[in-house]
Amino acid sequence: DQQVKQNSPSLSVQEGRISILNCDYTNSMFDYFLWYKKYPAEGPTFLISISSIKDKNEDGRFTVFLNKSAKHLSLHIVPSQPGDSAVYFCAASERYGGATNKLIFGTGTLLAVQP
Amino acid sequence: EAQVTQNPRYLITVTGKKLTVTCSQNMNHEYMSWYRQDPGLGLRQIYYSMNVEVTDKGDVPEGYKVSRKEKRNFPLILESPSPNQTSLYFCASRSGVRTDTQYFGPGTRLTVL
Question: CA 20 to 30 Å from B76, out of A3, A63, B85, B93?
């Protein structure tokens, strides 16, 4: 049973436009959410996170939005650049309530930013 | 430079031949994990360790063993590999249970024939 879902396996966007990557979760106990970025032949790297007490967190071109009632979060990249082309993983955890703070990852979305 | 290293990066082996994938981190992190990445399934945790001599099963531990004798090293052992263990494996570490940023190694591509 997939607790964190990324329903779009891939997304193609023009350079300079907005990229929106979506993620849904089922476990209402999740209280912390993260996005990781992965280039080919490299390990994932942390991008941005958000606590469940917030509904938005911004870091430069990257903004994560959290809608707790819908159990949905999204990552916005504005403006998109060719170097953003990568696989993006959404992850969730019971950071404050769980004993192990295990990260549960989604299946990933491959973003291709076309020049 | 802060990093997580894994060896080997690529390995082709045959069913039943024991192998070990090493993982080492130089950040003095307490918490380490192993994941496997498979198409359509994302990253799934195999085992984790919250400190030296403290290890526990993740979501897909069958067919794997780990050990944590030193803080920096967390090897993944496949005693009798099978083709369904063909996958991309990542080791990861973070400073503690409640910290956000998890550092991943570069990955080990394993093929079991």
Answer: A3
